[in-house]
Design brief:
Strand content: 15-25%
Radius of gyration: 38 Å
CATH architecture of the domain at 161-277: Roll
Number of strands: 18
Helix content: 40-55%
Number of helices: 25
CATH topology of the domain at 161-277: Chitinase A, domain 3
Distance between the termini: 69 Å
CATH class of the domain at 161-277: Alpha Beta
Length: 602
């Protein structure tokens, strides 16, 4: 837009604003819709019903949808959703249900990564379960045993002298790194310390005037750990803080607030909340539980060692000698077997490199022989021996174990199906990047790269004066409001050109603006319109293909992922017959976020 046309446009625009052309009355507010039938978590808890049916038998219930919506970010303050706004969430639940149905046909053993992770998690659960059933549940401890432990270990039940305090701390170090650090860094060390003392005494005066130590600590204390807690240091014994601080604190009686005092760490005000003498507690309450846990832990160690040693001595091992002979164990494929324990369980190589590294450190060897590797495999195989013993005792059939095993098995089968929604083999080629760049050239080649403001003046000397004023800190548009030619009501608008391209202003103007740094103001430049001083607000630069290639690769991958996943999803939906029953759920009422966090009705 030429400068004359810009003047005409600005004048017309300002006139329209002034006289109210087009109207600018009070914003229209949509009237609240009349209440309609709705469902909520409360109503579906009392009377649930299906919103969708998959293959005539698998129901997606209204309660499933509302619970999913309650976990979402929709309607943080509560309100109503209709079917057009909750339908995507419903489709997501249906997709989960279809994945669950498809998982029934997955052979998990053919997906090594998922299968191994499933086995690993199941074994961890099962070992913990066996430890509780085979060891902890069989330990019997009576009060006489606890009393004997108490007599034998008095040090465990000795509680040293303790205090509970809160404090305010101001230090030289805190001032030198705080928000006014530039000021304090210009002072001598003794001056900074005097400033810290002055501040702590000011806070003490505020306390005497009625402010609590907690309030003052939260607002002013420089002790970063306790300040957010209102200066609360909790209970602590001697040796927790520096000696000169503790000597003062441990000399106080409960309820006392000290005058400001200095320690090696800085200046303090301390409020003592409680002071307890050292004592030996009796094995009661939590201390009885502590003794019980100590005793059961010691017994459990002995029992566990006895069981594992017995199983270890009776075990048989079949080793994969060809795999063990490979010196660089990282070259062995993760799905190669390493050892078969008692002819029943197979340990695969996937975890072996970490095992060998740990064993190397334990044995103090840089290189492991095949025999060393066998010994390491025997050690890790102890878990298989315990699991086999648990199976032989029938623990694998316990309802809790069966439920966990089935849950994990189904979870990782679903993971196999869900993996189909990602095209892991997709790669973005250079030709794809180049084509995308050319198709979106407007994003990367900037037609209007400069954001500028300017003031037109009659002579260069006055322009230099205005430039000096702007560089001294006076707002550039305030200068334009006073000195830009023309009607006062349009001066600021005429001075602010926004983003411009090379053809919108004379070439001398544009070149001078390009040569001025962002935030800078140019010297007066002469054009056919007069002299200008130009303030550069922002610059945008063209981006080459090489510069934006990483960005384009990411965008192409994301676009492909969305398209690929949508097709995968559509294909899954097409394999099943889905019927919707949304008539009873025209609207769903959601509570606000805080209300959603309350327990659901039974």
């Amino acid at each position: 837009m030429g400068i004359l046309r810009k003047f005409i446009f600005l004048f017309s625009f300002s006139t329209a604003l002034y006289f109210g052309i087009g109207g600018c009355g009070k914003p229209q507010v949509a009237e609240e819709l009349p209440p309609e039938e709705f469902i909520s978590l409360e109503t579906v808890t009392a009377d649930d019903f299906p919103l969708a049916l998959i293959d005539s038998t698998n129901k997606v219930m209204a309660s499933d949808l509302i619970r999913r919506l309650n976990r979402s970010n929709l309607l943080q303050s509560g309100g109503y959703l209709d079917s057009t706004t909750y339908f995507d969430t419903l489709q997501s639940i249906i997709l989960d249900s279809i994945i669950s149905l498809e998982a029934e046909y997955v052979d998990l053993r053919s997906n090594f990564d998922n299968y191994f992770t499933y086995i690993d998690r199941y074994r961890a659960f099962y070992l913990d379960y066996l430890y509780r059933r085979m060891i902890l549940d069989k330990i019997e401890i009576d009060s006489a045993m606890v009393d004997s432990f108490y007599q034998a270990h008095p040090e465990i039940f000795f509680i040293p002298e303790q205090v509970h305090a809160r404090h305010i701390m101001i230090s030289s170090k805190g001032l030198l790194v705080g928000r006014d650090s530039a000021y304090y860094r210009g002072l001598l060390p003794e001056q900074v310390d005097s400033a810290a003392e002055a501040l702590i005494r000011e806070y003490y005066a505020m306390h005497q005037a009625g402010a609590t130590v907690e309030e003052l600590a939260r607002q002013y204390s420089q002790h970063y750990e306790s300040a957010p807690l209102g200066g609360d240091l909790g209970y602590f014994a001697r040796g927790s803080f520096i000696k000169d601080f503790e000597d003062t604190v441990f000399s106080l009686d409960s309820g006392v607030v000290t005058e400001p005092f200095k320690s090696q760490d800085g200046w303090h005000i301390v409020e003592l909340l409680d002071h307890t003498d050292s004592m030996t507690v009796k094995p009661e309450g939590k201390y009885y539980d502590m003794a019980y846990n100590h005793i059961s832990g010691d017994i459990a160690k002995v029992m566990a060692m006895a069981i594992t040693d017995s199983l270890y001595n009776a075990a048989s091992y079949e080793f994969n000698d060809s795999a063990l002979a490979i010196e660089n164990f990282y070259q062995v494929r993760k799905d190669v077997w390493s050892v078969i324990v008692n002819g029943r369980d197979t340990l695969y190589h996937v975890k072996i490199p970490t095992l060998y590294e740990d064993y190397s450190r334990y044995a103090g060897k840089n290189k492991l022989t095949p025999d060393d590797k066998k010994e390491a495999l025997k050690l890790i195989s102890r878990q298989f021996l315990i699991i086999q013993a648990g199976d032989d005792l029938g623990y694998a059939d316990d309802s809790a174990v069966v439920a966990e095993r089935d849950m994990l098995n189904h979870f990782y089968k679903k993971a196999v199906i869900a993996k189909g929604g990602s095209d892991v083999d997709f790669n973005v080629t250079n030709s794809m990047v180049e084509a995308y760049y050319n198709e979106n050239i407007d994003r990367f080649v900037i037609e209007k790269p400069l954001k500028v403001q300017h003031i037109i003046i009659n002579d260069s000397l006055f322009g230099e004066y205005l430039r000096d004023q702007a560089l001294s800190g006076i707002n550039f548009l305030d200068l334009a409001r006073e000195y830009y030619p023309g009607a006062e009501e349009i001066r600021v608008a005429a001075a602010d050109l926004g983003y411009i391209g090379p053809d919108e202003m004379p070439p001398e103007f544009y070149d001078a603006a390009m040569a001025t740094k962002v935030g800078g103001v140019s010297h007066p430049v002469k054009t056919e319109l007069g002299y200008h001083i130009i303030k550069v607000i922002d610059k945008k630069f063209n981006k080459t293909l090489d510069q934006v290639k990483p960005q384009i690769v990411t965008e192409l991958k994301n676009r492909h992922l969305v398209e690929y996943r949508q097709k995968w999803r559509d294909d899954l939906f097409a394999k099943h017959d889905i019927e919707y029953y949304l008539g009873k759920a025209k609207r769903i009422k959601l509570l606000g976020v805080k209300e959603r966090m309350t327990p659901e009705p039974e």
